[in-house]
Write a structure and sequence with these properties.
The complex is a heterodimer. Chain A is mostly beta strands. Chain A is built from no helices and 9 strands. In chain A, the strands form 2 sheets. In chain A, strands 1, 3, 4, 7, 8 and 9 form a 6-stranded mixed sheet that branches. A 3-stranded antiparallel sheet of chain A has the order 2-6-5, with no helix packed on it. Chain A starts with 8 loop residues before the first strand and ends with a strand. Chain B is globular, with a radius of gyration of 13 Å.
Chain lengths: 110, 116
């Protein structure tokens, strides 16, 4: 299973929106509604931000939203704040109790 | 509140076996699936494999021949072994708890360096 493809970087000014894509295949993202997104600040463990494509865990701001179309999932961060500057990783269930992560996107708040 | 703590040697010699343990506190290990995930320095995340409390396992096909995950319910722990390690196995190793098909709970991670 190959890693899901994410853009290496994305940026936006405070208050703007940024959308990160996560491209897979018909065997992973395209076949299952089990995409999740993780935020990772330097030196910290990843934090779950979105699960099952669109759901937010308790405590995650509603500025974070997820979506999916065919083989591509997306994470949108609206109303960018300084603390949103981090690395973001997608992951997808790929069947037979296996998972694949994305390549990661560094979000910079200008 | 559930907490996970990884432990094990921080330095392993090439060709030897890497061994790590994840201790679960605040919840029973018998309630969920549990995974190991690693991150080479400056690189992305890689799922290694998972285990259920009854010992059922699934592994990343790319690592399957070298990886063993086991569980000790009496100690509320699960463990990872990676055999025949090379410098490419140098990484921050995380243990994580599943909820459905996501990972809402992570340990702080432990760095393992493979070097002679």
């Amino acid at each position: 299973q190959s890693a899901l493809t994410q853009p290496p970087s994305a940026s936006g000014s405070p208050g703007q929106s940024v959308t990160i894509s996560c491209t897979g295949t018909s065997s992973d993202i395209g076949d299952y509604n089990y995409v999740s997104w993780y935020q990772q600040h330097p030196g910290k463990a990843p934090k779950l931000m979105i699960y099952d494509v669109t759901k937010r865990p308790s405590g995650v701001p509603d500025r974070f939203s997820g979506s999916k179309s065919a083989n591509t999932a997306s994470l949108t961060v609206s109303g960018l704040q300084a603390e949103d500057e981090a690395d973001y990783y997608c992951t997808s269930f790929v069947g037979d109790n296996n998972y694949v992560f994305g390549t990661g996107t560094r979000v910079t708040v200008l | 509140q559930v907490q996970l703590q990884e432990s094990g040697p921080g330095l392993v010699k090439p060709s030897e076996t890497l061994s790590l343990t994840c201790t679960v506190s605040g919840d029973s290990i018998s309630s969920y699936y549990w995974s190991w995930i690693r991150q080479p320095p400056g690189k992305g995340l890689e799922w290694i494999g998972e285990i259920y409390y009854n010992g059922a396992t699934k592994y990343n096909p790319s690592l399957k021949s070298r990886v063993t995950i086991s569980v000790d319910t009496s100690k509320n722990q699960f463990s990872l072994k990676v055999s025949s390690v090379t410098p490419a196995d140098t990484a921050l190793y995380y243990c994580a708890r599943h909820s459905g098909r996501s990972f809402p709970v992570w340990g702080q991670g432990t760095l393992v360096t493979v070097s002679s």
